[in-house]
């Protein structure tokens, strides 16, 4: 079912310095995960949740993103002449996914600033923010549930996931209380990348949000925080602290998530996804077991 009142915003202006030199001329979002760029998985997730209007916030030298989601008549004609229908369909799929728009972030002032750049496009409707470093397995429900919760509560919704307390310093962390809905919590407070001893829980914010346009008013006066950047977490903390407002709620995700923002986790994501594919898994899994015995 389509969600015509929901738009998607995908911040994609990062420099990808952890993957240099691979990202010197290639956007990190275009690095392949098996045989599709990471960014395509994210757009497909939005589309699967019923979203057709997608805005990407990009920086300089990100033209490859627009090119990927555009049609390529010469390539398509060549594949058609060869009768290679399978590859033709896969090539055309990316250009037919959704209505994709692009806006430049300008100065890279943080995630909060990137989201704020979407204000004119979003207008007065709720919108989902999907970070490209987090891939959610298509077999596990998350975004559609977040959209449902936002519609019911009129609140800002974040995705939360339990992580090892030793790693909580890598994430925004939520202080929460239970609600009458299983898997949904009310967020009392948020802390950006706390030390282990300062973390209020082991529930980390992962890269999915469903927000209302009210967040733009907060972001416009949010001062730079950790790292000298305008943090979306800081804006959400202000909303959570307002006892008279609709607040912030978290949907706790217990499914499969792949982190492509770290080199080691990126490799793990490729192996995990390839091993589960019917066209690659039957040959890959036995080889991997054999290879593992040689280590």
The CATH topology turns out to be: Spore Coat Polysaccharide Biosynthesis Protein SpsA, Chain A
How many extended strands? 13
Mean pLDDT: 90
By secondary-structure content and strand pairing, the structural class works out as: alpha/beta
Main beta sheet: 9 strands, mixed
Give the fraction of residues assigned to helices: 25-40%
Shape: globular
Strand content: 15-25%
For the largest sheet, list the strands in their spatial order.
5-4-1-6-11-8-12-10-9
Radius of gyration: 20 Å
CATH class category label: Alpha Beta
Please name the fourth-level CATH homologous superfamily: Spore Coat Polysaccharide Biosynthesis Protein SpsA, Chain A
CATH architecture: Alpha-Beta Complex
- Unreliable spans are none
Number of helices: 11
Give the helices and strands as they follow along the chain.
EEEHEHHHEHHEEHEEEEHHEEHH
Number of domains in the coordinates? 1
Catalytic activity: alpha-D-glucose 1-phosphate + UTP + H(+) = UDP-alpha-D-glucose + diphosphate
Enzyme class: transferase
Protein name: UTP--glucose-1-phosphate uridylyltransferase
Keywords: Nucleotidyltransferase, Transferase
